[in-house]
Design brief:
68% helix; elongated
C-alpha cells in the first residue's frame, strides 16, 4: 500500500524520467542539420573553438604552399624578365614562411595536413613545366593570379569570423602573403584583367587554368612588362 509520501516520490520519479529522456535520446544520435550539425563540427581547443571552416583553411593554406612554392622556383629559373623572376622569389619566400606557420598551428591544433598537391594543382605545375619563354611568363602570371584571387575571399572570411587565436594569427599572415603575391604577379605586366575577371566570375571547374597559349602563337594581347613598377625582391 502506498502512503502519501510514496505517491509523491513515484510522481517525481516519473517527471524526472520524462525530462531526462529527450537529453538521453539527443545525446545518442548525431546531428543531421542546422545549428546542431554546425556545433558538432566545432571542437574545443586551448586556443578557442576550432570550426570545420578553420580546419579547411589550414588544409587550403598547406595545399597552396605545396604547389605555389615549386611554381615560384620554376619562375626563378624560366622567367624571361626580372619582374617574373622577382614574382617567383616572392612566392618561394612567402610560402616557405607561411607553410612553416601552418604546420606549427596544425600540430598544436591536432589537424592533419596533406603532404602533396591535389590533382588540379599537379596539372597546373605540369603545364608550367611543359612551356618556355613568354608562353611560360603569361601562363605563370595568369594561373597564379587566378589562384590567389580565388583563395583570398576564403582567407578574409576566416580572418573575419574565426574564434581560434592560432587560426586568427595564421589568417593575418596569409592575408599579407596573398596580397603581396597578387601585387607582384600584377607587376609582371602579364595579367589580363578582363580574362581574370571572367575566370573569377565563372564557377570553378575541376582544373580552372586560363587558356594556354600554344608555343610560338601570338597572344591576343601581349602585355609589356614594366620594370619600373616591378617590386624588388
Amino acid at each position: 500500500m502506498f502512503s502519501g509520501t510514496g505517491l509523491i516520490l513515484v510522481a517525481l520519479s516519473a517527471t524526472a524520467a520524462a525530462l531526462l529522456y529527450p537529453l538521453w535520446s539527443y545525446g545518442g544520435r548525431q546531428a543531421t542539420g542546422g545549428a546542431g550539425a554546425l556545433n558538432a563540427q566545432t571542437v574545443t581547443t586551448p586556443y578557442g573553438p576550432l570550426s570545420a571552416q578553420d580546419r579547411n583553411f589550414l588544409t587550403k593554406v598547406r595545399l597552396a604552399g605545396l604547389w605555389e612554392l615549386p611554381a615560384g622556383e620554376l619562375a626563378q629559373r624560366k622567367g624571361t624578365t626580372q619582374a617574373v623572376r622577382t614574382a617567383g622569389q616572392h612566392l618561394v619566400d612567402g610560402h616557405t614562411s607561411l607553410d612553416a606557420h601552418t604546420r606549427t598551428a596544425a600540430t598544436r591544433l591536432g589537424v592533419p595536413l596533406p603532404d602533396e598537391p591535389d590533382a588540379q594543382q599537379k596539372q597546373w605545375l605540369a603545364t608550367l613545366n611543359a612551356i618556355q619563354g613568354q608562353d611560360f611568363d603569361r601562363q605563370f602570371a595568369a594561373t597564379l593570379r587566378l589562384a590567389h584571387g580565388r583563395v583570398f575571399p576564403l582567407v578574409a572570411q576566416v580572418r573575419a569570423g574565426t574564434q581560434n587565436s592560432l587560426v586568427r594569427d595564421l589568417a593575418d599572415d596569409a592575408v599579407s602573403t596573398v596580397l603581396d603575391h597578387i601585387r607582384v604577379l600584377e607587376s609582371t605586366g602579364y595579367v589580363d584583367f578582363g580574362a581574370l575577371a571572367r575566370g573569377l566570375a565563372a564557377s570553378p571547374s575541376p582544373v580552372p587554368v586560363p587558356p594556354a597559349v600554344a608555343p610560338g602563337a601570338a597572344a591576343p594581347v601581349t602585355p609589356t612588362p614594366n620594370p619600373v613598377s616591378s617590386p624588388q625582391p
